[in-house]
Amino acid sequence: MVGRAQHGRWPLPLVALLALVLLPGCASFRTLNSKQPNVPLIYSGTRLNWYALHDGCCAKERFGAQAPKHAAIDLPASVLLDTLVLPFTVAAELGVNLGIRGGM
To answer: Model pTM?
Structure first.
């Protein structure tokens, strides 16, 4: 119906703006953009958040990135993003060159 507020639905521009603000702080983006060699790639953001939640001491040395301050809040987004990029991270771990370039 026109004129009635739709409860439980977020407007698309608000969701897009929220994503743009939050994604650069996401553990998955931080670890996948790390320049440090020999860091884990498969589910890296999820693993970094889990490490931080269990009081890991040396996230920068182990994952090539600092853990987010609010790892529990970041964890669901990292699981989702890590799942979406799983084929690419598995290929990278196996040494398959997909010819993909870029980064933030």
So the answer is: 0.70
- What is d(CA 21, CA 24) in angstroms, rounded to the nearest whole number? 7
- Tell me the CA end-to-end span of the chain in Å, nearest whole number: 42
Rg (CA), the chain: 16
Q: Concatenated DSSP letters for 39-69?
A: ---TTHHHHHHHHHHTT-S-HHHHHSSPPPT
The residue type found at 86 is L
CB 48 within 8 A of CB 63: yes
**How many Cα atoms occupy the beta-carbon half-sphere of 2 within 13 Å?**
0
Q: How confident is the model at residue 1 (pLDDT cuts 50, 70, 90)?
A: very low
Is the pLDDT at 24 greater than 90? The verdict is: no
Whether residue 26 contacts residue 78, with contact meaning beta carbons closer than 8 Å, is answered with yes
